[in-house]
Amino acid sequence: MANWHIGVIGGSGLYDPGTLEEAQEIAVGSAFGEPSGPVTTGRIGDVRFTFIARHGAGHVLSPSRVNYRANIEVLKRCGVTDVLAISAIGSLKEEFAPGQFVLVEQLIDRTVGGSAGRERSFFDNGIVAHVPLADPTCPRLSDLAAKAAVKAGAKVHRGGTYVAIEGPQFSTRAESHMYRSWGADVIGMTAMPEARLAREAELPYALLGMVTDYDCWRDARADVDVTDILKVMRENSDKARALLATLAALLPDRREASPIDTVLDHAIITPREAWTVPAAARLDAVAGRLINLFPGGAA
Question: Nearest 5°: phi and psi at 200?
C-alpha cells in the first residue's frame, strides 16, 4: 500500500505517539504564505499519513485566518495523494445528534472569498483554471472513511450537505432556519475554501464531520455553547483516532487512479504560450506535473 499517502486536516488531538509509527514533525514552506504550522508525518501500518492542525497548535487561528491555500499546498508538496478532513460541525437536522458523525457529500459556500486566509483559488494571477466542482468530495475516499468510522464504533450518517459560514460567530436563529430551508444538514466554518483548493491541487477530498451540537434552530431560547462543543469533541477523540487506524487497514493494496488526479488537464484556460515564469514557479507543487512541461520548468 505504499502508493497511498493520506493527508489529514484536523485538530492536533487526532494523533499522538501511539497513533503514528516513525513520527516526524517537519516545517514545510509554501509559495502561498505561512501554513497553520508544521506537518507531522509517519506511518499507520503500511500507509503513510501526514497531518496538519487546521487551526494551528493550541487552536490559535480563527476559521477566517487559516491559510487554506498554504495548508493544501504543503500537503501536496509532501506527496499526499488523498485528503481526509475531520471537522467539528453543528447539526441542522434532528436525527444528526451530537456525538455522531456525518460523511459530507455536498457543500454550500457562504464564506467571504478573499478575506484573510480565505483565498479561493491557486490560479489567480498569470495562469487561470476553472476546475469542475459539482461533486466536491471524493466518493471513494468518503466511502472508505465512513466504513472506518463505523468499525471504530461511530454512528455515521452518509450524504450530508454542509453549509460553510464565515464565522467566527455562530449563525443567527434566522440564518439557521434559512439554511435548513435550503436543504443543508450540517453547518461549519472550514470546509470552504478547503474543498475548492483540494480539487485545484488534484487531491481527492473527503470530509467526515463530528456533530458537536444542534445549531440554534432547535430551541427558541438556547444558543450554541462552546463548552458543550469541546465536551463532545473530547468524548469522540478516541473514535476519531481509531478510525484512522481502521482506514489504513481498509485501503486497497493498490491505489487506482482517480479522475481527480488529472482534473487540471482540461481546466487550465490560459494558453501555455501565455504562461509566465513567475506564475508557473508559484504553482510548482499544486500543478507540478503540468508545470514541469513548461519551457524552462518552474525556474
Answer: -65, -30
Residue with cell 500537503: 75
Q: Which residues are catalytic?
A: 213, 215
Residue 232 neighbours by CB under 8 Å, 6+ apart: 98, 99, 210, 211, 212, 213
On whether the CB atoms of residues 206 and 83 are closer than 8 A, the answer is yes
Neighbour tally for 114: CB within 10 Å = 12
Q: Write out pLDDT tens, residues 19-72.
A: 788 899 999 999 999 999 999 999 999 999 999 999 998 889 999 999 999 999
Q: pLDDT for 202-261, tens place per residue? A: 999 999 999 999 999 987 666 766 777 777 777 667 787 889 999 999 999 999 999 999
Q: Which CATH architecture has domain 5-228+248-291?
A: 3-Layer(aba) Sandwich (3.40)
CA distances from 168 to 41, 72, 103, 262, 291 (A): 29, 21, 23, 35, 37
Three cell numbers at 131? 476546475
Q: Classify strands 186-188 and 82-91 as parallel, antiparallel or unpaired.
A: antiparallel
The DSSP bridge pattern shows strands 205-214 and 186-188 to be unpaired
Report how far residue 234's alpha carbon sits from residue 99's, in angstroms, rounded to the nearest whole number: 10
- This prediction has a pTM of 0.93
The Cα 209–Cα 30 span in angstroms is 27
